[in-house]
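Hello K.,

You asked for the raw outputs rather than the summary table, so here they are, unedited. I folded two proteins back to back in the same session to keep the settings identical. This is the first:
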Amino acid sequence: MTLAKLSNSFFPSMPSLFERFFDNELMDWNNSNYSSTNSTLPAVNVKENDNEYLIDVAAPGLKRDDFKVNYDNGRLTISSEKKNEVTEKDGEKLTRCEFSYQSFQRSFTISESRIEADKISANYEDGILHLVLPKREEVKPKPARQIEIM
């Protein structure tokens, strides 16, 4: 049996029902991540080591002040809103203006029992937003303990 992708030669801009069924938009109804401009969401890397969780958000072209990072009841939310507005100077005539508006929101559920919520830190450098979520002492891996034999 051979699997082949169906061609939409009659209606190339209309996806087939088969393609839409497996599309993330239909499958992930409870997703709280969104972009209000139908642009792509920034890519995110989540890493973990013995002492902390590290979240890196690739968002080039933004400034530190464009971000909002909130942690509330176990939900970490990273959002951004950026407007580029062109203003006319004296003596200039605006013949074409393409406004730019970008916004997104990414949310992660992180149990309050696992992290020190009051010690979360964020830094924006070279187009990457870096977040550090320190782990609570009780969830950090403990070294092996030698048991004395009596």
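The second followed immediately with the same parameters:
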Amino acid sequence: MDSKDRTDVEMEKSKAHIIVEIIEYVPNAVLSKTIIRKTTGNITVSSFDTGEEVAEKSSAFDTYIQIIDGSAEIVIDGKKHKLKLGQGIIIPAHTRNSFCAKEQFKMISTVIKSGYE
């Protein structure tokens, strides 16, 4: 994964935005931008250029992924899931997962950190 731009600063509050326009595609890169970050969880928007991947990892928390542009291949505990525009999936806590961009896509990732203390 080539993360050329990771912005951990929250977005401005009380200001409308178009979610798919928050982040752009950059050749040969995966970009992430924080929408909101709290101790109880965070929401991030990411863009993946065609051919980019995120290596297998796991999280101690449930993560909800929603595709907001293009389509994505997500592998959860060895099972491939092809998500299209508008679709979402919950990645359960403590499961191995990875992402692969067969085409460009953008997603929203929501992590909820309560319930696992």
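The domain at 6-112 is CATH 2.60.120.10 (Jelly Rolls).

Happy to rerun anything if the numbers look odd on your end.

Regards,
P.
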